[in-house]
Amino acid sequence: MTGQFEDKINESGLSIAELIQYFREKCKVCGHHRIMHDYLGKCEGVMNKPCNSGCDEFLAE
């Protein structure tokens, strides 16, 4: 599946650095990185710890 993702990234024109920057952005509601939020915007927490901030929407800092 890695190849499929690489193809999508290459087709998008985004660099790996841009993707990393995007996912490192923090949420001003819960303070967790974007990558910790699911596709609906709910924070799933970090390192197997659920987020108890009540955050259900990513709002960039």
Characterization of the model:
By secondary structure, the chain is mainly alpha-helical. Helices cover 33% and strands 0% of the residues. It contains two helices and no strands. It has helices at residues 2-12, 16-24. The longest helix is centred in the first third of the chain and has 11 residues, at 2-12. The protein is elongated. The mean pLDDT is 88.
Quick rundown:
By secondary structure, the protein is mainly alpha-helical.
Mean pLDDT: 88
Rg, Cα atoms, Å: 13 Å
Shape label? elongated
Main structural class: mainly alpha
User: Can you summarize the main beta sheet?
Assistant: none
How is the secondary structure organized here?
Layout: H1 2-12, H2 16-24
Structural features:
61 residues, mainly alpha, elongated
